C-alpha cells in the first residue's frame, strides 16, 4: 500500500534546487515551498522584486503535495457561520475572493503554460439525512445572498441516493503538485533564488533588517514571508489556528468514477471526487479529520474511510492512502497579512481544508502589501484582526485542550513497559529509570528513543501509528521517530535518548 499521496510521483518532475551554502542578501525572504510560497515567489518575480525561497525539504513536501486538489468557492467554515459572525460585507468578500482565487489559478496556469490537469467541475454539498436539510437550506440562503452561483437540487450524479443537495457552479480540480512544479520551473534562473533542504532555524529583526539562520548560513532580508502553513517559532497566531489531521484514500472501483466534487454534512465531513492518474481512474474519498495528537489509533481513520467508500461504491482495491495536517482558525477565516508584531514579517495561516485557494489568494494579498499596494480582500483576512466575539468559543475550547495536553501528559499517559515489548510500527511514552522517553520501533525492528517534550513550546508529543511520527497536540509540530522535524512550527529536533534494548534472541 502506498502511503504517499497519489500526486507525489509528480514531485520527481520538479526542478531540483541546491541547499543554501553561502550567506546571502535579498529584498524578500520567503520561507516554505508549498502553493503559498511558490505563488508569492512567482508574483514578486513578475514584479521584478528579488527574493530568496528557503524550503526545509523539497518543493511540495508539505501539505500542498498531500492535499486532494479541489478548488471550491465553498468553505469548510460554511457561509452561514461567516455571515452570522462577520456580516454581509465580509461574507461577500470571502465569496468573491474565492471565486477570483480560482480564476487567478486558471489564468496563471494559462499564462505560464503549466500542464496540471486543471478542469472546471460542479460541486455538490449533500444532505443524506432529513435532519441536515435545514442547515443545507440555510447555507443556500447565505451563499445566495453573496451571489455565488448556487441552487438547491434533488439531482446529483452519484450512484447512491441523497436527501437534497446544494449545487455550486464553476468549481475546479487540478494537480497541485504539477502546478507548483510548473511555477518552480519558471523560477529557474529568475529573480527568485530557491534553496531546498534549507531549514530556517532562527530569525531576528533589528532596525528594519532580518537576520535569518539556515544550514549554518545567514540570509539578510528587508522583508520575510512565513509561507510555512503555520508561523514558525512562537507567534500569537498559533493560539488562533488549531492543528488537525485529515485522511484520504484513492481506490479503483467497478464502473465509472463520479465526474464532479461531492461532500456530505457529517461532522467531520467526507468528500468524494475522482482523478485519472497514469491512465487509471481513481475514486478519492477524504475526511475523518481530528485534532492532531488527540486520537490514539490514527490508522483506524483509513479503515473508516474505506468502509465509507465501500458502502457507497463497488470498490475493487484501495491503492493509495495518505494523511496530512491543516490549521483551522478560531473564527473560520484565515489570517493573511502582517504578523501581529512586525510590519515587515508576513504570515498566511488558518486555511482549514481550503488552502489551495487561500494560498494563492494570500500570495496576491501579501505581494500587494510588499509592494505598498492596497488589496480589496485584505479586510476579510487581516491577520491583525481582533474577532474575539466570533472566535471566543473555539479559542477557549481549543486552548483548554492544549492546557489539558500539557498537564495530563506531564503526569499520565505513560507506560511502565520495557521497550522490548514494542511491535514493529508501534510507539509509546515509556517510564525508563524515572525518565519519560518516547520510544518507537520501525518496520525493521530498529528502536528509536527521543525526548517526548516538543521543542516548540514544551507540550508532550503523542504517537501517530498511521504515519509513525510523534505529533504535538498543542500547536501541531510533528517529528519522525528519530526526532527530526517533519512539520509544524518547531524548528529543532526532539532530543535523542540512549536506552538499553534487549535483542529478541537474548530474551
Ligand atoms: C489531507 C488534506 C487534503 C486537502 N485538500 C485540499 C483541497 O482539496 N483543496 C484545498 O483548497 N485545500 C486542501 N487542503 C488544504 C491545503 O492543502 C493547504 O491549506 C495548503 O496546501 C497549504 O499550503 P502552504 O503552501 O501554505 O503550506 P505547505 O504546502 O505545507 O508548505 C509549507 C512549506 O514550508 C516548509 N517549511 C516548514 N518549516 C520550514 C522551515 N523552518 N524552513 C524552511 N521551510 C519550512 C515545509 O517543508 C513546506 O514545504 C487539504 C489539506 C489536507 C491536510
Automatic annotation (TrEMBL):
InterPro entries: FAD-dep_OxRdtase, FAD/NAD-bd_sf, Rieske_2Fe-2S, Rieske_2Fe-2S_sf, Rieske_Fe-S_prot_C, YhfW_C
Keyword Iron listed: yes
Pfam families assigned: DAO (PF01266), Rieske (PF00355)
SUPFAM superfamilies: FAD/NAD(P)-binding domain (SSF51905), ISP domain (SSF50022)
Domain Rieske: 414-507
Keywords noted in UniProt: 2Fe-2S, Disulfide bond, Iron, Iron-sulfur, Metal-binding
A GO-annotated cellular component: membrane
GO molecular function, one term: metal ion binding
The name this protein goes by in its record: Iron-sulfur cluster-binding protein, Rieske family
Organism the protein comes from: Sporocytophaga myxococcoides
